[in-house]
Amino acid sequence: MAQCFRHQRKFDEALALLQKCLDVQEETLGCKHPSYARTLYAMAQCHLDKCDYSSAIRCLQQCREIEAQALGPNHPGYANTLRLQAQCKLAVALYEDAFNDLESCKRVYEETLGARHPLYAAALYTLAQYHRLKGETTKALELLCVCADIETSSLGPDHPGLANTKRMQAQCEMARGNFRIALGLLQECRRILEGTQGQAHCKHPSLPLTLANMALCHLELGEFAEAAQIPSSFKEAQEQLPGDQLLAMVGAWRIEAKCCMVRGRLKDAVKLLKACMAAQSPTTGEDNPDFSATLYMMAQCERLLGRYDQARHLLGKCAGIQMHMLGKEHPAFISTRKELALCLMAQGHLRAALRILLKCREAFSKTLGPGHFLVAGAMFRAAECQLCLGCVAIAERLLGECAKIEVATLGRSHPGLANTQRLQAVCRMAGGDFQGALKLLQANEEAYHEHLDNAHPMRASGLYLMAFCHLELESPEEAKRLLDETALIEGVTLGKDHPALANTLKGKAQCCLQLGQPREALEIIENCRAIFSAALVAGTFFKDLDLRKDRFASRLCVHLTSFTASLDITSQLRDVTRAREASTEAGVES
């Protein structure tokens, strides 16, 4: 009966029944009997489902002690306990302890069951998870390849277990920037879960997560039409899940929310994240790491909407949960601190943000190793801070280190490396070397042309920077041509109401000014203001901005002195200028 409750996601009811089982077994069999250990194991599974990792580890430790005495340390049952305990330890970033447990587990399975048994494959799968979390995707993929071979021969090519292996292979490929390969693996995974005979496995809870990952791959590849087709299948899979299993949708909803964030549809993302919270609160509760992951994404949305204080409040709650449940050295807690630094950057607290980012780099390096791509991510943001503080040489040094890590861990075709190269170009622009920046951006453009669709929004951001260089080099015609191409890409892929498009149009207005077309510039600025007003929260950006210090705004005002509505125009320009950093940031995030 307890297993039925667990299947229905009624974890507290299941735990209450299992506690009664323990009481009966203690009176009749004693607390050293293998049956008592099996009940503890079932309780640990419930705690793991609730993300209560510390309680799960305590149950498994007691279970492990009983089995070591009653069955011996070379029994498959003891190895099962080791494997589940390793999963819990991975969740709380006790990576080396988990690795030691998995090595012991693998040895027992190999000696007792053989190296072609499904349980041996399960040990390899969890070991691959360890390597993936450590950023060692090559090792993870090698293990998953062996795992898939065992599962295909022992369980068959249509078993859901094989689908899980293929999905983790896809996650590794996504981390390396190989989105096309990942998409192929996810399509195989989808085929297995839907079933070859009339969608036999269509109710499998892993299907929505697979579909959501497919949509994310399409977005990363710039295939927005294909990504848009996924939600219909996604909704069909969701509707076939029982109401008490909606918690299984949380991971998929979060990925769908991320897709919305990439497209600039922040309000849609917030709705999805609220649905996640509604599913999580009554089942797993609000004091667990999985709920904090939803809070984290909600905070990202608030930051991109310009609501920095609300974002910081959510991040405070998120950090409190993570500190209590996972500890200060867990990557999730460090990532939350990094997100807080981004809020501080947006509010102009650059030195405070820089201090946090440098600590994040040290913490990631200590937990995951100095060559992990999350270390590079913290360094990238620290370089942004240094650039804003005018420390161009320091920013360039950080970006050089960042690029080395990304090449080694993610490969030369990964979008993260392209972002780093673009910020290096911005450093050259900050130093007045617009020709050097333009050469770097043109090389970057060739790399994007080779690996991504021509209409990818990340390509658009590169074209935007190239246009800015041409503008500074007094080539407004070429700049305008590049900005027209940029606007076309952003309008098709991100939508005509995305802040990134407004920022591009604003640059186009600047070109019109240099070409002596002030009326056309005004029309474009009006369009910009409408987009910003619809997408962002008015009045939250640069409240203390001195408009006279904005060269672009001042230049436009000079050209428009003959208009009687010049005061209204100035007000409109102030709105646009205040939103500048937010729109640029939204463009980078997409």
UniProtKB/TrEMBL annotation:
SUPFAM superfamilies: TPR-like
InterPro entries: TPR-like_helical_dom_sf, TPR_rpt
Record keywords, A-Z: Repeat, TPR repeat
Signal peptide start and end residues: none
Pfam families, A to Z: TPR_12
Keyword Repeat included in the entry's annotation: yes
The keyword ATP-binding belongs to this UniProt entry's keyword annotation: no
Protein name: Uncharacterized protein
Source organism (scientific name): Cafeteria roenbergensis
